[in-house]
Design goal:
About 30% of the residues lie in helices and about 25% in strands. The chain is of the alpha+beta class. The strands form five sheets. The protein has an eight-stranded mixed beta sheet, with helices on both faces. A five-stranded mixed barrel has the order 1-2-3-5-4.
């Protein structure tokens, strides 16, 4: 491939490809001056391009006086073209920490293609420059090897996914960016239509409806590297515009999609040097919530949740017994290694618990010298305390953290505490752990909105055995659904879709839409389902999140070429920006 890379440009080799076997080769290199050192008559320039960097030696005996004068004044990030011969470094000058460390290029000519102002931050890894500055000058930030490496990795992942899907008969098909607004869980970005005054397009939160209609159209196997848009509050793994690998198949059941994705992911991860055992383990939603408190568990470490309701449900500690008697649960985690923490340090964890809905946080510390510390121990009988220690596998040096509340609150509290303690205790989380979480409930009740909402989305097929109870007991309904979880993040989510128009209407009614709203917002989909829709299902992979984890980054901003900041703005271009009154008038809008 290097021959093709070097065929249509100024250079005959890249700055990262030369090795000892290239000794004596005449080359032309192009790139940026990374470092420039004058060693008493000899000038050394580290020339960097997207492939790596090579040491250039400028000797006054080998270049013209004019070129040597240029080399003396080369500044950081000057754009250079260098011709010369590859030579081996002396044994004591070999740099084992760089890929081209065996060689250097003795220049015979040097051309400055462009100068550069001194960059406001170092073009190197591990800098501490604030994010806004880096985003404002993102084109400089991308020059840094670690940022460019993340973009290369992203490219490799996309190409591997495409190759794996192509050979399985999938067609890559684009779907519209300008579409209708539909309720899919987040706010839409809306776009006014000039030819249709008072009407708006919505940017797609996902291509969900279009891919389903492609299945009705008989495409059978579709995928797309799809741009998606959601107007929601941002965090490390969210952006207002993001990319998902959208996949849909006809004439399938859930097991077919999962088995296909096991094979696709195995090939994709192998292509980027990550080996994971396939097929992946499957865990039910109920088991994930019971053991880890969340539906995207990080299974690379233990500290699992333990339900101790049966042990403490009749204890003298009213917080515990009251929770159980009111239909709640008492659960706990064992943070091994934190038993000697001070009371002040332990009680700081109550802030984490409160952020996740807890009214308080109980704890018991077992110090390494054999003491048992906690204000709640006195409320337990000897039998209850002994059973509690057995259930929690207590040893000296352990710290028990409790949550007593409704199951969803207790799970959320301990899930957050589990992750926080893993950080504070520096518990190793090496490598990658992938699994399927399957069989999600179909509906959940939104306490804020006071209505039912779909756990995945309202196009999900309800379990056949639960179709008869959809209206009478929505929360008891299961669904044909599955999430791909990696290192504690959901990197993919999918379902078997509804392919029956009447079932689709029933689900949309349960989530609060009237028949008129169904016809207005989803009439096109309902009609498609009435015209011979096959059984179908699929999955969407969060490409940004997947690459973030593979690259070992903590934010998807680190693997997106031009991301938005946490305020959904772009410091480089100034977006979002004001528009003129004329532009507003053209689309029949005015600002209030």
């Amino acid at each position: 491939m290097s021959d093709l890379i070097n065929e249509y440009c100024m250079h005959t080799a890249t700055a990262g490809e030369l090795r000892g076997q290239d000794e004596g080769r005449e080359v032309v290199l192009t790139g940026w001056a990374w470092h420039n050192r004058d060693h008493g008559g000899l000038i050394f320039i580290d020339l960097r391009d997207r492939d790596g960097y090579t040491q250039i030696v400028v000797d006054p005996d080998c270049v013209s006086a004019e070129d040597f004068a240029k080399a003396e004044h080369v500044g950081r990030e000057y754009v250079l073209k260098v011709s010369g011969k590859v030579r081996r470094r002396s044994e004591d000058a070999i740099n084992p920490n760089m890929a081209t460390g065996e060689i250097e290029v003795l220049a015979d000519s040097l051309e400055v293609l462009n100068t550069s102002q001194t960059p406001p931050f170092a073009i190197e890894d591990g800098i501490e420059t604030d994010e806004t500055t880096r985003m404002r000058l993102r084109y400089l930030d991308i020059r840094r090897p670690e940022v460019l490496a993340a973009l290369k990795l992203r490219h490799q992942v996309v190409q591997a996914l495409r190759a794996a899907l192509n050979k399985r008969g999938f067609l890559e098909i684009e779907t519209p960016i300008l579409a209708n607004s539909t309720p899919e869980g987040a706010r839409d970005y809306i776009v006014p239509s000039r030819p249709n005054p008072g009407k708006f397009y919505a940017l797609p939160q996902s291509p969900q409806q279009f891919k389903q209609m492609l299945m009705v159209a008989g495409v059978e196997r579709y995928y797309q590297i799809a741009r998606c848009f959601r107007d929601e509050d941002l965090r490390a793994d969210r952006q207002p515009e993001f990319t998902q690998v959208d996949i849909e198949m006809s004439f399938v059941q859930g097991d077919d999609v999962i088995r296909m994705m096991d094979d696709v992911m195995a090939e994709t991860l192998s292509a980027v040097g990550v080996e994971v055992a396939f097929p992946l383990k499957r865990m039910s939603y109920a088991e994930a919530m019971d053991r880890y408190g969340c539906d995207r568990p990080d299974t690379r470490f233990g500290m699992e949740l333990v339900d101790i309701s049966s042990i403490v449900g009749n204890s003298g500690f009213k917080v515990f017994s009251g929770a159980v008697q009111n239909g709640g649960v008492v659960k706990a985690i064992n943070a091994k290694g934190a038993g000697d923490w001070s009371r002040g340090d332990v009680e700081k964890l109550a802030e984490v618990a409160a952020e996740n809905g807890a009214k308080g946080m109980a704890w018991i510390a077992f110090t390494t010298d054999g003491q048992e510390k906690s204000p709640i121990i006195k409320f337990f009988s000897e039998e209850e305390f002994s059973a509690l220690k057995d259930a929690m596998d207590v040893e000296p040096g352990d710290l028990l953290l409790f949550a007593a509340d409704k199951p969803d609150v207790a799970n959320a509290v301990l899930s957050a505490l589990r992750l926080r303690m893993a950080e504070l205790l520096n518990i190793p989380r090496e490598g990658h752990s992938l699994l399927w979480v399957v069989n999600f409930p179909m509906f959940r009740y939104d306490e804020e909105e006071k209505k039912y909402t779909a756990e995945h989305h309202p196009f999900t097929h309800v379990l056949d055995e639960d179709l008869d109870i959809m209206e009478s007991d929505p929360l008891a309904c299961g669904s044909y659904s599955y999430d791909l979880v990696m290192d504690g993040f959901e990197v993919g989510g999918g379902t078997i879709r509804i392919h029956n128009a009447e079932e689709q209407r029933r689900v949309l009614r349960i989530v609060g839409l009237s028949d008129e709203e169904i016809d207005e917002k989803f009439g096109h989909l309902i009609q498609a389902l009435e015209l011979g829709a096959p059984p179908h299902g699929g999955i969407a992979l969060g490409l940004d999140r997947l690459v973030m984890l593979l690259a070992g980054k903590s934010s998807i901003r680190d693997v997106i070429a031009f991301p938005k900041t946490s305020s959904a703005s772009d410091p480089m271009t100034g977006a979002p920006s004001a528009i003129t009154g004329r532009q507003l008038k053209e689309v029949n809008l005015r600002l209030l």
